[in-house]
Amino acid sequence: MDIIHLLPDSVANQIAAGEVIQRPASCLKELVENSLDAGATHIKIIVRDAGRTLLQVIDDGQGMSPTDARMAFERHATSKIQSAADLFSLHTMGFRGEALASICAVAQVEVITRRADSEMGTLLEINGSNVVRQEPCQCQQGTNIKVKNLFFNVPARRRFLKTDSTELRNLIQDFFRIALVYPKVQFTFVSDDEIMFDFSAGSYKMRIEQIFQHNARKQFSEQLVDIKVNTEIVNIFGYVGKPEAAQKGNPQYFFVNGRYMKHPYFNKAVMTAYSGLLQHEQVPAYFIYFDISPSAIDVNIHPTKTEIKFADEQSIFQILLASVREALGKFNLIPSLDFNREGDIEYSAPDKAVTNLSIHADTTYNPFKTRSANSWQPTVDHRRTDVDSNWSRLYGNATSPAAGKTQADVAIGTAAQQPTIDLKFAQSVDKEKLWQFADRYIIMPTPNGLCFIDQHRAHINIMYHLFVQQMENAPAGSQQLLFPDTLDLSADDAVLLTEILHELRSLGFDIETIGPESFIINGVPSALTNQNGVRALLDIIAEIKSSGINSKQHWHEKMAWALASNVAIPYGKTLNQDEMKDIVERLLALPTPALTTKGQQVLSVLDIPTINAMFNK
Ligand code: ADP
Ligand code: MG
Questions:
Q1: Each residue of 542-554: pLDDT tens digit?
Q2: Is the distance from CB of 358 to CB of 306 less than 8 angstroms?
Q3: Which ligand is nearest to the CA of 65?
Q4: What is the CATH number of the domain that holds 64?
Q5: Could you say which of 51, 88, 180, 429 has the lowest number of CB atoms within 10 Å?
Q6: Dmax (CA) of the chain
């Protein structure tokens, strides 16, 4: 007896719906995307009970003919692609032709639609995949679709829904993700008869403002800086938040070809650009739009998935990193350390002209100005040159062009911050004025207060940057061990070690493989003086394993970190004046002296107002 039979469409659609339509928000997303694909300029969304009883989308798009309206609810019915090849030149949000079929399998749907070229529109009623009514009707051009009682015939799904407030939050979240990409489309969002959002058409920045401007937050868009870069691989534009506006919970959005996406690796690129500019746990806002050939991403991505695969993620990482850095550098958003905080101390240059000059320093300082968008070559070197020049100007590093110049040259600060560093101080770090406290902190007087530098973290920071550079450029010196160490690893660690052998060599390790899981260490980086090479290697492996991210650039940072932690001057070590001066000067020449790459505070200033306050002044 034959036992195989085809499932009726209604059942097949219901199964498919389980994947595509998981909750009211996914249903709304599909409907709104259809309106956008139909070229709508105004989209009105009406929901009731967080979409449980009603989800309605009214658009002024191209509408559907009576036959198309009927077809639209069949599975794999789409007007958007003809063949698989079209997938690679896709410019619509939808293409699978399964959304409406899925929705009508699990809800009661009513559509009213009319094309511009026909006088009469069509009304169509479908109840759990069964067409119960189709008739001509009078209506506006466009499509008005009502999805009622979602999951009415799938109790299990209905029970699976969260509270109304959670589902409404999901609806709003998905709505924002779309509204942020279509600023030229007017959106109205009504929930339980109340207008929640009414966004007029405008620019990207306006839309961001419309969504994220809260009363508590003054001029959200003023806290944003433009980013823009066009390369052969990808075009990127958008906005990143100024570091000083960083705070927990700030919105962070990536979009690719008009679609919201999550991308932890690209997020890392953005965060790397901010390293040293943020206080611990504060996050910058960003809205970054990628424009890329559909053939360079995995377009066949599932509608409910937001992770998108790119063909050339590493190059894009670098482009993104460089462009965010450029944006932050262009506006001279250098670390706003306590050094230049406005206090009630007197500015040491009372000369008005000088003050004005330095206030406008941000327009003259642009380390990237001469670089064309295509010639990006972001390496650690850039990091050194961009912000470094501020620090060396500030501290009058011997090689700095500012050494010996006028006060205006050494003054730094953003437009909002008065520079308060004087020339005397900027000349160089005076080693006689440094002292060590608790065998832990180097203390340096500055005009604004006492700067405390954590000796161990400062040295980690210095060595970290050195090691990152060594891996990318010149290999480091190695010292041969008199008595080579052997290292036996577990199988997975051995695979990892083999994968990073090249980098380890550039750091100064001399490692020989003597078996699948056994190695001999003949030499270690010369920075590792007396320390244990095996321990450093195990730390490196552990550090890499601790991050889920699988990219060489990321690994380099992890390796540099582990090795720097191993070699850094420990707490409790007494330092002489020359050692302190060396550490302070090298630290201040770093692009990000104030924070380690893990966000730990390296230096902090006890400022004069605080000191005065101790005396009730
Ligand atoms: P897809 O969007 O993947 O093509 P859908 O099931 O979402 O699949 O929609 C099927 C078809 O119905 C679309 O290709 C489109 O032709 C038509 N359609 C759906 N919604 C609208 C709308 N709001 N305006 C005009 N046409 C629409
Ligand atoms: Mg669709």
A1: 888 776 666 677 7
A2: no
A3: 1
A4: 3.30.565.10
A5: 88
A6: 101
